[in-house]
Amino acid sequence: xxxxxxxxxxxxxxxxxxxxxxxxxxxxxxxxxxxxxxxxxxxxxxxxxxxxxxxxxxxxxxxxxxxxxxxxxxxxxxxxxxxxxxxxxxxxxxxxxxxxxxxxxxxxxxxxxxxxxxxxxxxxxxxxxxxxxxxxxxxxxxxxxxxxxxxxxxxxxxxxxxxxxxxxxxxxxxxxxxxxxxxxxxxxxxxxxxxxxxxxxxxxxxxxxxxxxxxxxxxxxxxxxxxxxxxxxxxxxxxxxxxxxxxxxxxxxxxxxxxxxxxxxxxxxxxxxxxxxxxxxxxxxxxxxxxxxxxxxxxxxxxxxxxxxxxxxxxxxxxxxxxxxxxxxxxxxxxxxxxxxxxxxxxxxxxxxxxxxxxxxxxxxxxxxxxxxxxxxxxxxxxxxxxxxxxxxxxxxxxxxxxxxxxxxxxxxxxxxxxxxxxxxxxxxxxxxxxxxxxxxxxxxxxxxxxxxxxxxxxxxxxxxxxxxxxxxxxxxxxxxxxxxxxxxxxxxxxxxxxxxxxxxxxxxxxxxxxxxxxxxxxxxxxxxxxxxxxxxxxxxxxxxxxxxxxxxxxxxxxxxxxxxxxxxxxxxxxxxxxxxxxxxxxxxxxxxxxxxxxxxxxxxxxxxxxxxxxxxxxxxxxxxxxxxxxxxxxx
Length: 636
Fold this sequence. Notes:
This protein folds into two domains: 25-360, no CATH class; 386-504, no CATH class. The protein is built from 30 helices and four strands. The chain has helices spanning 14-33, 40-55, 78-116, 121-134, 144-159, 166-180, 188-207, 213-225, 234-243, 266-269, 272-294, 299-312, 319-333, 335-338, 344-357, 359-363, 365-369, 389-396, 409-414, 430-438, 443-452, 465-474, 506-512, 519-531, 535-548, 553-565, 569-582, 587-599, 603-616, 621-631, and strands at 401-404, 455-461, 480-485, 489-494. It has a four-stranded mixed beta sheet, covered by helices on one side. Strand 3 (480-485) and strand 4 form a beta hairpin. Helix 5 (144-159) packs antiparallel against helix 6 (166-180) and helix 28 (587-599) runs antiparallel to helix 29 (603-616).
């Protein structure tokens, strides 16, 4: 039975418990939710949605990229893509972002409502804050928002047993049809219904009383609705493909995507959302133990939360699926400990801390600490997505096939430019995709890709892996000409093309570009200048980075390297010493300082630097080799 919270507590105003904390948590969540669009896949989701609206046809083969052209394409996201494209038609990327914010608002509202069935509003608000922060990595306009929404809706209705009438079953079926046509992980719906059926079956065996009618009808209704799509049962095969993208068995190139990295890996643990997830995971384990100890639990919800927890442990992107169900599960099974209101001092302190947390995303500090190239806002991030490049392409009349940094594939499609590849990696032949990804660092492969796809343009995101490998070669290859560059991208064309735009000299580009206003922009621009041989412009850009963010270590590393390469050893040494002041564990800086000391004839000082570095990383092979060179093979 649910716990009905008392509306009052002597000596503590109702405002504290029923208005202050929910309001403060809502403001804090909004501060994290309102962020610029940075996700590369959002662009192609909108682009394909536009195509569906224009043709009134769901694509069965790929017509959106050169590398995948004509290959089978299973678009299980089509309904969500149409939603995004409709929002984009009304308000551009602002409209797309508002769809994301609205969906998350609905998700968190129903999660909060499910928790308030068991515990008071103040406790539910604090738990909701943990849920929201655990999900914050997925605050992007992606189709998995529909899966997260359906998980919390299903959980709420299942916990209230609102499936014991024909109309309620029809609502479940309707929700499942939307789910089936919006995201490939729709199979979670039948899983949740199956947990209800399994729980009812086990309970009936134990009690001897059969109560399987409505659970069975629920499962059949949801299972039948899961094949109501243009793909029928083939949708289940695609869901299996999505499941293989995360975890140990995933293809190599999928393991490079942050959202598919191991839940307990280094990348995941470096982000705040992991620690809020860990809190929920531990609380859910305590709640399950308490439920089993007291023998008062719903077996179906216990099975359900165990399954979602297992999914969350396979890959980072699955964390929200568990989090939005864990909140109500914890509230239900720990309600005996959480039924009382918070003491006034605790409530006020919690509200103050949560309100203070709003400063981090709104100031941009939160994103800088995590190296996320975004800020609070509704537009697309100008750090990664150029607003001027599409206008240049329209004016230039370019009609050939370009090579693009993979991150910009969807951006190209959105602006009517067919990319070589985008983020739909499952569409491509895996061997050819590996070749495309390897080509920037392999001249022979690069020539093959250029020939195979008749490439006449190259679009590179500054400081991307593709740019760092290709730019030094392109600038020394007379067959390619730099014709455009801004704070985010550079564009190169084959020199034998007709009506070729004028060449752009990187050394004179800085004067023509606007002053970078964000440290990420000047840092990326410095990388572009360094890779194209414009050393002085690169150093000036690194200085601009440090002016905007004095703690940016990558700028000091870059400056130190450029100073050393141009013989300015004193300036190089000062840059690396400044690095050590910020982080005395920076072994790369210590190694460079050792090299500089050796070049100045100060071998003892160089050995001292290397010893310090080896005390931090004693098994580093490069440090060991450098130390042996200076000591004549001796041990430290």
